[in-house]
Amino acid sequence: MRAFKLEEFELERDDRRKPAVVDKSLDRLGWLMDDLFRVPVLGWRFGLDALIGLIPGFGDTTTSLVSFYILVAAVRYRVPKVTILRMGLNIAIDYAVGSLPVVGDLFDAWWKSNQMNLDLLKRRAGVSTADAETGRAGDWLFVGAIIVGLIALALGSAVVSVFLLFKLGQLIGSAGS
How many other C-beta atoms can be found within 10 angstroms of the C-beta atom of residue 123? Predict the structure, then answer.
């Protein structure tokens, strides 16, 4: 009698998840913020994130607040916490580097955090659009903590900016005396 060997049988396993279908409003938001305009001939795309980011202080903060909508939607779609953390990191990088004068504005046109976060959400969503009405309390607390951290980053950068402007004013004032 021949022994049954499991190694002889190859089982096909499809580990690739099909991207989830998300609300059209999320896709639209990602498109508006990151891909609304096209540079003719070059084909480069940029969105309102890059344009609004040109307004010093106000622009990057506003676009980060808009990005929170996609982050909060990830809770409704039951995206794993590690992926939500990665999405928060994308927003933090967009805010921190985007706040730098000139270089940050160019970076905003290149770094498409909203599109990256939408792609993560679609790949890692645990439920369908119809089931994505509510999230779990622990997930809401986790996202709340990420948002508080990102707001702390914004406030910290504002304090540093005011401090540097104050020191620059003192330096200019003492040089003129």
Answer: 14
